[in-house]
Amino acid sequence: MKISKKSWTAVSAFATSCVFMFNGNSAVASTNQKDSIVIATSSSTNQKDFKVYDASSNFTIPAEIPASKIGLPTSGATISSAIIVKSDEKGNLNGEYCKVLGAIHPVDKNAPDINFQVNLPVKWNSKILQYGGGGFDGALVTADNGYYGQMVSDPTPLAQGYVTFGSDSGHVNSSYWDSKWALNDEALNNFASDQLKKTKDTALEIVHAFYKSKPSQVYFVGGSNGGREALKVVQRFPTEYNGVICYFPVLNWVPKAITDSRNGDAVKANNGAGWISPEQYKLVNQTILGMDDGLDGVKDGIISNIYGAEKNKDEVLKALKNIVSDAQIKTLETFASPMKFNYPLANGLNTMPGYPVFKGAPLADMYLNQFGTAPTTRDGVMTESGDAVIKNMIVRDDNFNPENFDTDKWRDKIVQASELLDATNPDISAFKNNGGKLILIHGAGDQIVTFQGTIDYYNQLANKFGKDSLGEFVKFYMVPGNGHYNSETWNMGSDTLGALDQWVVNNKSPENLIVTDQSEKTKGRTRPLLEYPAYPEYKGSGDVNSAGSFISATP
């Protein structure tokens, strides 16, 4: 039921923002400085929408979105609040916008809601941008800040006029690697990818009601698990997104978890003989860096030539034997080794690549530690993650001990989980045919997601489409030294959203991109952002901190 004008209530405002919350049968408002706000209310219990007036405009926010408007099964969605955030509000760098909070309700009443936030700029550029999550999700992605990898000095997408939105993927975590929620089928399906479409469809309804028009472009950006989600929208909902930015994706979710658990076994074996302390690993990493740093023509604290580093592996191992024990060497080699399955997983894959231990990707630094806090604690960051996936996403038993996991015994469950959660399908023909564009980025210093998995996926794409044809809609960049969100060597910044938008709207292919280091100690260094397999090589002269001093080299 659309609320009639007679049922609106005018409120004079004297607070910093204007909040409209449906509480039972009435709208509750806190007030807004300077403006007179009109809130739609109704005595009926079947509230449908309400209107927001500021000094110059009026907008409609739907209070309910029926299940028929959402492309996958739900029980519909409801809006819990809408806040007009003024451009001069303290701490707001996004311009004036309407912040909408709500929930998408499950079919299974035992499953959690999908909580979401949609940010609607008053000055809209007609485009929308969905943000992915990270880890196991479970925390609301507010999407009112910058995306990973953008220059911190650049305006946020919301400030640029994009509608931005995100969700908690359909559960709330009690701890970072909490996975008990995955025991509910609908919650697990939502996490796998269903929530991406449900949230996007809901946001589109809100956008259409608010602006009275549809977006010209729909974009997605995400890294890590959000990178997996980015590939999921390309593979599963290919005609619904015009452009996607994907950073360091955990695309091989299930085999990675099993491999990470295997690595935890290796650390704990023989009463933790192979455990490597942070102090010891610092020496390991310094040794690798010292031997491989100059392979790109300059010693700058970054291993750019990962191909030369691979060839240098035997020499590196000889040097490391003077630093750590044989048991610890075995741990390093286990982390670096691929894990092979005796049967195909989703999309025919049967191998999970190892970590690029000897190519400059540290397994432990000031941000992340794969070895854990003590020899037998089994609390390395990825071991904990892998164990949680095995328990509740594969075996589906929170009491299961991952140390007893047998890949052959649990074959059917592994394949089932892989088909649900992995994002490894190379057939993205529908995305290509719809004009979609994909920017794929991985850092060569990623501590917890092996860049080899992304390289393998890109090579599969190249085999399917041909390198030249693939370049018309997919660009893949490796960033030397860049870690997983944070790194001691390089933290990238680049206008990838601007590059994507130009590519989609004007068919201007990304060219001559520059990536800037945003690390505190080395802030401002630049390098050319080169398409794989190229890497930056020093010309032999010029400022080593300037992209102009580097050329494109290939193995």
Can you offer a commentary on this structure?
The chain is α+β, with helices and mostly antiparallel strands and 555 residues long. It folds into 3 domains: 211 residues, no CATH class; 167 residues, no CATH class; 125 residues, no CATH class. Helix content is 29%, strand content 21%. The protein has 13 helices and 23 strands. The strands form 6 sheets. Strands 2, 3, 7, 8, 9, 10, 11, 12, 13, 14, 17 and 18 form a 12-stranded mixed beta sheet that branches. Strands 19-20-21 form a 3-stranded antiparallel beta sheet, with no helix packed on it. The N terminus is likely disordered.
Number of strands: 23
Q: How large is the share of residues in beta strands?
A: 15-25%
The whole-number mean of residue pLDDT values reads: 91
Radius of gyration: 25 Å
Q: Number of domains in the coordinates?
A: 3
Structural class: alpha+beta
The largest sheet, given as strand count, sense and whether it forms a barrel, is: 12 strands, mixed
* Percentage of residues assigned to helices: 25-40%
